[in-house]
Design goal:
Elements: H1 12-22, H2 27-38, H3 45-52, H4 60-70, H5 74-87, H6 97-101
Helix pairs in contact: 1-5, 2-3, 2-4
């Protein structure tokens, strides 16, 4: 006899939203609680929204603090994060990412750029590869 298949692990976004709403917290409040617990003042409600919509998946640092703040076992969050990554529903692993990178105007360096021009005085064309 074949044992019944275990249910698929929950994806992270809906799990985070359920846990947050069960506490009666807004995304802003969840971000403030995470910042206070982790001692990092830079997390905003926008990042909470991205996690819940599965546009991004938090890394180990934030998963650990989410477990503490939401009082959820870390293993449950880690399994949900892994299921979300496998499903490919995050922006970083979603289809079309490479195509979008090639569509940037020449001279743009992406989200981490520090200024409007490239160093060395001239604009460089982006290459994809």
């Amino acid at each position: 006899m074949i044992p019944p298949a275990s249910p698929r692990p929950a994806q992270l976004g809906p799990l985070l939203a359920r846990c947050r709403l069960a506490r009666g917290w807004s995304q802003q409040r969840a971000a403030a609680e995470l910042c206070a617990a982790a001692g990092v003042p830079t997390l905003s409600r926008h990042e909470i929204s991205r996690w819940e919509r599965q546009r991004r998946v938090p890394g180990g640092f934030w998963l650990g603090w989410l477990a503490v703040v939401l009082d959820v076992p870390l293993v449950a969050l880690a399994e949900a994060a892994a299921a979300t990554r496998r499903a490919g529903s995050t922006r970083a692993t979603g289809p079309g990412r490479a195509a979008l990178a090639g569509a940037r105007p020449a001279g743009r360096r992406g989200p981490g750029r520090t200024g409007g021009t490239t160093r060395g005085g001239g604009a460089r064309a982006m290459t994809t590869g």
